[in-house]
Amino acid sequence: MLFVLNVNKINNMGKVIATDLDGTLLYPKKRVRMISTKTLRFLRRFADNGGKIVLVSGRNSEYLKKVAKKIDRKCDMIGCNASFVISDDKYIKKVYFNNARLAEILDEIEKTYKPKTFFLMSEDNQFIMRDSFESRFYSAGYALWNFFEGVYREPFIVSKEKFNEILKTGKIRKIMIFFGIGKKNVNSSKEANKGIFEKYRNEVEPSWSGEFIELSPFGCSKSEGLKYYIEYNKINHNDVYVVGDSGNDISMFKEFPENSFCMKHSPLSVSKYAKHVIKHFSDLEKYIV
Predict the structure, then answer these.
(1) 178 and 119 in contact (C-beta within 8 Å)?
(2) How many domains does the chain have?
(3) Is 121:171 a contact under the CB 8 Å cutoff?
(4) Distances from the Cα of 64 to the Cαs of 19, 26, 39, 57, 86, in angstroms?
(5) Which letter does DSSP use for residue 29 in this model?
(6) CB-based contact 107:115 (threshold 8 Å)
């Protein structure tokens, strides 16, 4: 009881928790409750004592809003790896791909690395998987997996026609390149990410995430989005605490090294960039004083 009273007296004014979602804030998975009770209590105390919560994710805006509703406190958002930034419920930054050049790049990637399929996320929150003969097995598997995700379920469409239509004229926030399931495909994805970075480093922002490579518009990474956010809101760089678990979080760890936290279940290739390793998200509370 004494511990709880002391925590409630902490003044978090000016401090920011910038957190990844999948594998971080949403770990361990709670397919009915979404977020663990301990984590929710911590975040609500943090916000009630003056702290800011920023959701920093590869997910699109509708999903982030669903998480914010569950937290039941004001949350700002950096989504699709910083293709957009929302502060005080308004967009302060939006970035999209050049459609014609993106189509060329995806065609070159397909010919060079032969991924299983592509996904895209658009401004109107469409999540589309490109259909092909080879991808049909994976689309069926993904649909089944998505069904059992419970509260984490994210609607998606499988359509080559719709994919190509948006690729031609839509406002695209993020591309996901899928290499398949299993260790061999994860390694293929990792190696392809290195090649894509070398060839297209001045045109897109690639980040490796297991079986996937995520492509964001050039200049869009979680660290760049967070820097833009804190500059816009005049927040002290040293008051930002970043938490993540995967490759697209490394840029945050590098930008905010003193207050960088990686989840214990992350691979060493990710956790080595963070100063602290925590088992559960709520463990962060003892570091924020």
Answers:
(1) yes
(2) 2
(3) no
(4) 11, 12, 17, 8, 10
(5) -
(6) no
Q: Determine phi and psi for 253, rounding to 5 degrees.
A: -60, -40
Query: What CATH number does residue 107 fall under?
Result: 3.30.1240.10
Looking at the structure, do residues 75 and 120 belong to the same domain, yes or no?
A: no
Q: Which domain holds residue 267?
A: 2-95+221-287
Lowest pLDDT segment from 90-94, 154-158, 166-170, 226-230: 154-158
Token digits for 47? 């916000």
Alpha-carbon gap, residue 152 to 30, rounded angstroms: 9
159 & 207 share domain: yes
Rounded to an integer, the average pLDDT of 162-191 is 96
End-to-end distance of the chain based on CA atoms, in angstroms? 18
Kindly tell me if the per-residue pLDDT of 5 is higher than 50. no
Last residue of a domain, one of 217, 237, 265: 217
User: Do residues 221 and 197 make contact, with C-beta atoms less than 8 angstroms apart?
Assistant: no
Q: Which token pair is 200?
A: 């297209």
Answer whether 35's CB lies under 8 Å from 71's CB: yes
- What pTM was estimated for this model as a whole? 0.91
Containing 122, the helix (H) or strand (E) segment is: strand 117-122
**Gap between the Cα atoms of 67 and 278, Å rounded:** 21
Residue with tokens 């419920």: 89
Give, as one character, the DSSP assignment of residue 217.
E
Q: Tell me the pairing of strands 52-56 and 75-79.
A: parallel
* Of the candidates 277, 235, 287, 230, the residue with the CA atom closest to the CA atom of residue 253: 277
Considering Cα of 230, then 266, then 7, then 289, what sign does the dihedral take? negative
